[in-house]
Specification:
By secondary structure, the chain is α+β, with helices and mostly antiparallel strands. The chain has 3 domains: 9-83, Orthogonal Bundle (Arc Repressor Mutant, subunit A); 107-130 and 232-338, GAF domain (Beta-Lactamase), CATH 3.30.450; 132-230, Heat-inducible transcription repressor hrca homolog, domain 3 (Enolase-like, domain 1, 2-Layer Sandwich), CATH 3.30.390.60. The protein is 49% helix and 18% strand. It has 11 helices and 10 strands. The strands form 3 sheets. The protein has a 5-stranded antiparallel beta sheet with strand order 7-3-10-9-8, with helices on both faces. Strands 4-5-6 form a 3-stranded antiparallel beta sheet, sandwiched between helices. A two-stranded antiparallel ribbon has the order 1-2. Helix 1 (9-25) packs across helix 3 (44-56), helix 1 crosses helix 4 (73-83) and helix 2 (31-37) packs across helix 3 (44-56).
Length: 340
């Protein structure tokens, strides 16, 4: 490995600020930007002199005479090894297998819960997860893949994981991607997916073609928003209602099933409820097609302070005690599995 010239603490602090700003904006960084945005305690003139020294040492480059500086590969290497403690880069195959397994497990839990409730009660079951854009980012990881691409993984505070393959600059090796992951996790941890989407979308629009990493993250957040209507609500036993004489009429049954197909309407039906049990009987549901139905729900905990709901939709003549007991049991099990 090529020996790197040592730099003092002040140069290291400035270099880190330059790297972090460049990662977020993909635009050359000037001394005034560092002085204004980061608490260095240094004047623009002092920062400019230090940046000149860093350029001579090979840590920075200047695309144009009047432009600011951009980090070099050597700078990313230093950022990983010294500024961030030099943690190892995860293996791509192992990381992808791990995250793919976690995604399947979470989805299986929700699907299994809906199926279990429908089988126990013989009614239609619904399970609602918290809105995805309200979830908060725990960490973000860019895993190296074949040249010019990376696996982008976002982990939320509920344990939910989403990943996608994005295009990245071929100049970004595994060390640089890991450094970007660490920095973005520091910046975005604790923010909602909606905030992340807005922030990175704005950064990417300002940065142009060199912001493929940021645009990839923003696109994944937008994709999660589009999926929220279908992913947030899972239905089990939708045709169970046909076993009851109240819905022997074909038109009445078709109207009921059409409500189940429109996930937005189910989300409205289940949203805005308090923790614990809720029972809506007949017209109380506010859905004309369910005037002869009752909707019984129980809450469960997800992650750090989020709340989901499990519910049953059936004729108003349901055995409420047994249904409440079943929902309480399943809701408690989900809280144990998905809560903190």
């Amino acid at each position: 490995m090529e020996a790197r010239p040592a730099i003092d603490a002040r140069k290291a602090r400035i270099l880190r600020a330059i790297i972090e700003d460049y990662v977020l904006t993909a635009m050359p960084v000037g001394s005034r930007t560092i002085s204004r945005k980061y608490e260095t305690g240094l004047s623009s003139a002092t920062i400019r002199n230090e940046m000149s020294d860093l350029e001579e040492l090979g840590y920075l480059a200047q695309p144009h005479v009047s432009a600011g500086r951009v980090p070099s590969v050597k700078a990313y290497r230093l950022y990983v090894d010294e500024l961030l403690g030099g943690s190892p880069v995860p293996q791509d195959a192992a990381a992808k297998a791990y995250f793919s397994q976690r995604v399947r497990q979470l989805e299986d839990v929700i699907t299994s819960a809906a199926q279990a409730i429908s089988e126990i009660t013989r009614y239609t079951a619904v399970v609602m997860m918290p809105k995805q854009l309200e979830l908060r980012v725990s960490c973000l990881q860019l895993v190296p893949m074949p040249r010019g691409s990376a696996l982008l993984v976002i982990v939320t505070d509920t344990g939910a994981i989403r990943d996608t393959v994005i295009r990245v600059s071929e100049n970004l090796d595994g060390d640089a991607l890991y450094a970007i992951s660490r920095m973005l996790t520091e910046r975005l941890s604790g923010r909602t997916l909606q905030e992340v989407q807005e922030m990175l979308g704005a950064y990417a629009r300002q940065a142009g073609s060199d912001a493929r990493v940021l645009q990839g993250i923003a696109d994944l957040a937008a994709q999660m928003e589009k999926q929220s209507a279908t992913d947030t609500v899972t239905v089990g036993g939708s045709h169970n209602i046909l076993n009851y004489p109240e819905y022997s009429d074909v038109e009445k049954a078709r109207a009921f099933l059409s409500v189940l197909e429109k996930r937005e309407r189910l989300m409205q039906l289940l949203s805005g409820q308090e923790a614990g049990f809720t029972v809506r009987i007949g017209p109380e549901t506010g859905v004309p097609e369910m005037a002869d139905c009752s909707v019984v729900t129980a809450s469960y905990r997800v992650g750090a302070g989020h709340q989901g709901f499990v519910g049953v939709i059936g004729p108003t003549r349901m055995p409420y005690g047994r249904v409440l007991s079943a929902l309480g049991t399943v809701g408690g099990a989900l809280s144990d599995m998905l809560g903190e």
